[in-house]
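Following up on my earlier message about protoporphyrin IX containing FE. Here are the inputs again, as you asked, copied directly from the submission form:
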Amino acid sequence: MRAQAESPINFLTLHRDAVRHRYYVENQDRDPFYDSTCGAWIIGNPAHCKQIIASSDVRPGTSDCAADYLTLSERLGIDFSPLLFAFGHIPLCLHAEAHQRSRRQLSEFLAERKAELTARIPSIIAQRFEVMRHEGRVELMSEAVVPMALDVLSIISDFGVSAAQCENVSVAFDKLIGMSKRRRVSADLSKLTDLIAARLGPEASDTDVGSRLALLVLGRDPLVGTFGESLHHIFKANSGSCLSDIDYPDLPPQTGVPVVERIVTRPFRIGECQFAEGDRLRVHLQSFAYAADARIRSNFFGGGAHTCLGRPLSMDLWRAMTTLLSNSPLRITLLSSSRRESDYVFTCPQSITVELGR
Ligand code: HEM
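Thanks, got it. Here's what our run produced:
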């Protein structure tokens, strides 16, 4: 059943559109439907999203990235080898055994860094969120959230990552960008790969370099976006309150990874909808935030074979940050915010300006 979307909503931009909050609340029980603008089924019912990401009858849409760039490269004669190198180490871009191998490598790699990360989290949070303990005006994204994420990624990757070095790397997953942006992200990834290789020295293997690169690509925007969106959500709802009076949720209440794509590998049904092999599904993980069932709300880190490997680290950071905020006696007022435009993959505030006072 391929009913056309009768809604005027643009499902390519819903994840960052202001109408999204109402849309998700009002469409929780909706069955999947086909949207011809996206050329994909739209899944906005949180229970269906949970079922699909755990399913073994689908593969990530990102697993086509390498093949797409290879075709472009052959057709246009452009060298996209830096992107192809990155895709070869990012588990979300790999199938079956290659996925399992790369996931295992990243998991072992993160386990080796766990002790250092755990030891450093309190000081990173204390240093980067120190601005929240003083009266005055603060721009939260550039003064706290982004520097915090870069500190963490610098420990993971073994070298000092600056904002400029990995600002645009996750654009690699965006299938809607033009050729000049594709060339730019390829050039950025090439520079980043060279920096990592130079830092590690000639003994380093492709896996040593690729694992660090993969974690930079997969870690930055989800972390920055989820913390930014969640802090914005909390401070908007509590503007005028003392930071210490706010009831901070155990889990980030919003996500920077609003939607993931899946491609059907084995036909299956949900309700009246029959999905055929090759169908594309846009799974709106952001709908979890609005689920009536609290158990479903904790699925922002995905599920099944591709469950996020950065979840424990992100949760440690969230707990440390909310503990610090709940110990500040200052009153917070949300002054303004702006969102990152032209992003079809992540959700992320560009700026969140707050005033802190007594
Ligand atoms: C709060 C922040 C984060 C959120 C909300 C988040 C969310 C997600 C989600 C939804 C997926 C699955 C995507 C899919 O199924 O298509 C995923 C995968 C992944 N994430 Fe995260 N992530 C976060 C932070 C991080 C960090 C900091 C790292 C690395 C240090 C990381 C590493 C990974 C990896 C390696 C995968 C791929 C797993 C695989 O394909 O097997 N994530 N993340």
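One observation from looking it over: Residues 53, 60, 91-92, 103, 106, 156, 215, 218-219, 222-223, 226, 252, 255-257, 260, 285, 300-302, 306, 308-310, 313-314 surround protoporphyrin IX containing FE (CB under 6 Å). Hope that helps, and feel free to reply on this thread.
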